[in-house]
Specification:
alpha+beta, TATA-Binding Protein, five-stranded mixed beta sheet, 5 strands
């Protein structure tokens, strides 16, 4: 069985999220750093007199693991990765404290 290309899979999922968020008045930016393997979806702009700047999704590749550093989506990036065939042992919930990861079904890190 051929291994899933994690870089392309992450880019595809994040691109879909950027399209889904495009109905807002703020700008959605995709940040793809293929050299260091950092991938983000950002929300940037202004709403009335308030500055908006936030990371919606942040995913890193470290070794052979997908580290989810931030996930402010309803569906959950981990769920989408699982649906695409990524095994739980290759996903680290980096936003969880290290001591809590042992209580999840995902990788420890």
């Amino acid at each position: 069985m051929e291994r899933i290309d994690y870089v392309e899979l992450i880019k595809d999922i994040l691109t879909q999220h950027s399209i889904n968020h495009s109905q807002t008045d703020t700008e959605i930016q995709l940040i793809f750093d293929d050299y260091n393997y950092h991938y983000q979806v950002l929300n940037i702009g202004w709403q009335d007199q308030t500055r908006i700047y936030g990371v919606i999704i942040h995913v890193d590749l470290k070794g052979d693991k997908i580290w989810i550093q931030r996930d402010a989506t309803e569906i959950g990036i981990a769920n989408q990765l699982l649906e695409k065939g990524v095994v739980k042992q290759d996903i680290v919930l980096g936003f969880q404290a290290p001591y809590k990861r042992q209580f999840t079904e995902f990788a420890l890190g």
